[in-house]
């Protein structure tokens, strides 16, 4: 039925006439483009190693850098003395091996006598301070060129008594001595006969600790001068 | 070898099969698009898009319908996209049931001498048809498919296509008579 109806729509004359205008064809360049695309799609796509592996490599590199960074950071942030590599017995030995003369010196009889507990606390604080200082210095170093940063570090290095103690405990005596000298020069100047602003911020306890350290470091003459300065300050 | 077999051969990697398919259908598709667009440059762009879609669909091709129906359906959709992109989807596509008309016109038998001239007049008349009727006529003449297949291509009902073809034939006859 449908076919019969469809046939009613056939106009043979029109169809015949239309066949006369069925000669339009796409231009040759289109034929070329399409056939080339058809052939190209059949070719197996070459694996671009960079396309895939660079992502993997980049990810691995990122993970590696991140891991190293975290491990380094954890190592720096770890403040427990045992993790520093200083055996606990050395620390204790140091505490109990204080020279007796030190304990009996006139300065030690002052109210601010350093007890074992206080020393232990000071050592821990010293280690913490030393760690924080190192971390800060490393951050500064990473921002500048290493040579320039090293120079700046020496120039701005502000030694403190706790870091000197920590260095001594760690067995780095030469550096501890060097820092002790810097410390004295920093707070008291070269001649030890004039008051400089930094002295004002120094507590009696620190003064005494410095004197004690200097004595231990065989810098007796300087230690005596400092004792005099301390007495002058207390009188004032 | 039929179209579907050729397409399957191309799917398996036979580029010659595609060349045969292309050769069979390039003229019909090109004329369909050119006469619907009325612009050579646009027709060429759409033509290329249609064939590249066929190429890209190679891997997923399955024989669910006649290849011709599938091919012209892609072309029809690309044409509609083109109309929509230019905000000019012809009203004739919305009018599913064109008004019926009395058609008593017949074309005078043409001699071979003036057939070419008459064919050129026919092209003018085709250009004057509303897009939807023109499309139905062109699909019928270029593909030789049944009304139901043409309806599948155009995404409409068989009855609508029947009306459009009837309307187109009547309009073309009257137009040719007027120009003669």
Please provide a written account of the structure.
The complex is a heterodimer of chains A (236) and B (180). By secondary structure, chain A is mainly alpha-helical. Helices cover 72% and strands 0% of the residues of chain A. Chain A is built from 13 helices and no strands. In chain A, helix 7 runs antiparallel to helix 8, helix 9 (161-169) runs antiparallel to helix 10 and helix 12 packs antiparallel against helix 13. The longest helix of chain A has 29 residues, at 49-77. The radius of gyration of chain A is 41 Å and the shape is rod-shaped. In chain A, 17% of the residues are buried. The model of chain A is unreliable at 78-116 and 149-156 (pLDDT under 50). Chain B is mainly alpha-helical and 180 residues long. Chain B has eight helices and no strands. In chain B, helix 2 (15-37) packs across helix 4 (67-85), helix 5 crosses helix 8 and helix 6 (131-143) crosses helix 8. The N and C termini of chain B lie far apart (43 Å). Chains A and B meet through helix 1, helix 2 and helix 3 of A and helix 2, helix 3, helix 5, helix 6 and helix 8 of B.
Brief summary of the model shown:
The complex is a heterodimer of chains A (236) and B (180). Chain A is an all-alpha fold and 236 residues long.
Evaluate the radius of gyration of chain B.
18 Å
Can you identify the CATH class of the largest domain in chain B? Mainly Alpha
Helix segment count of chain A?
Answer: 13
Shape type of chain B: globular
Can you summarize the main beta sheet of chain B? none
- Give the helix proportion of chain B (percent range): over 70%
Beta-strand percentage range of chain A: under 5%
Distance between the termini of chain A: 127 Å
- Name of the CATH homologous superfamily of the largest domain in chain B: RNA polymerase sigma factor, region 2, helix turn helix motif
SSE class of chain B: mainly alpha
Query: Would you list the SSEs of chain B in sequence order as H and E?
Result: HHHHHHHH
Q: So, CATH architecture of the largest domain in chain B?
A: Orthogonal Bundle
Residue windows where pLDDT falls under 50 for at least 5 positions of chain A:
78-116, 149-156
Residues in helix, % of chain A: over 70%
Name the overall outline of chain A: rod-shaped
Assembly state of the chains shown = heterodimer
* Mean residue pLDDT of chain A: 69
Secondary-structure element series of chain A: HHHHHHHHHHHHH
Write down the domain tally of chain B: 2
The low-confidence parts of chain B are 100-104
Mean pLDDT of chain B: 86
């Amino acid at each position: 039925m449908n076919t019969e109806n469809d046939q009613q729509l056939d106009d043979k004359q029109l169809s015949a006439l239309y066949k006369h205008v069925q000669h339009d064809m796409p231009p040759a360049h289109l034929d070329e483009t399409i056939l080339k695309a058809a052939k190209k799609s059949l070719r197996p796509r070459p694996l671009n190693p960079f396309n895939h592996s660079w992502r993997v490599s980049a990810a691995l590199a990122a993970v590696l850098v991140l891991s190293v960074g975290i491990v380094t950071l954890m190592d720096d942030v770890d403040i427990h003395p045992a993790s520093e590599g200083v055996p606990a017995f050395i620390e204790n030995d140091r505490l109990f091996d204080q020279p007796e003369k030190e304990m009996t010196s006139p300065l030690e009889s002052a109210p601010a006598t350093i007890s074992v507990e206080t020393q232990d606390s000071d050592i821990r604080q010293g280690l913490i301070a030393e760690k924080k200082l190192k971390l800060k210095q490393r951050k500064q170093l990473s921002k500048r060129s290493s040579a320039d940063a090293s120079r700046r570090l020496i120039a701005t290095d502000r030694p403190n008594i706790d870091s000197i103690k920590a260095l001594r405990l760690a067995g780095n005596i030469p550096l501890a001595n060097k820092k002790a000298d810097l410390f004295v020069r920093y707070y008291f100047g070269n001649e030890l006969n004039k008051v400089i602003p930094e002295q004002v911020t120094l507590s009696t306890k620190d003064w005494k600790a410095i004197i004690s350290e200097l004595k231990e470091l065989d810098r007796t003459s300087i230690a005596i001068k400092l004792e005099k300065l301390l007495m002058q300050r207390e009188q004032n | 070898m039929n179209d579907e077999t050729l397409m399957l051969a191309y799917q398996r990697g036979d580029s010659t099969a595609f060349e045969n398919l292309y050769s069979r259908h390039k003229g019909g598709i090109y004329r369909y698009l050119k006469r619907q667009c009325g612009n050579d440059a646009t027709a060429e762009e759409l033509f290329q898009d249609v064939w590249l879609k066929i190429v890209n669909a190679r891997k997923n091709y399955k024989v669910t319908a006649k290849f011709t129906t599938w091919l012209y359906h892609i072309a029809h959709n690309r044409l509609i996209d083109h109309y929509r992109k230019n905000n000019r989807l012809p009203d004739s596509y919305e009018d599913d049931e064109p008004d019926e008309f009395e058609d008593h016109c017949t074309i005078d038998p043409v001699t071979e001498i003036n057939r070419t001239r008459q064919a050129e007049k026919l092209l003018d008349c085709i250009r004057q048809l509303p897009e939807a009727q023109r499309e139905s006529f062109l699909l019928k003449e270029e593909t030789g498919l049944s009304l139901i297949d043409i309806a599948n291509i155009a995404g409409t009902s068989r009855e609508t296509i029947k009306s459009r073809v009837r309307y187109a034939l009547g309009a073309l006859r009257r137009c040719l008579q007027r120009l003669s």
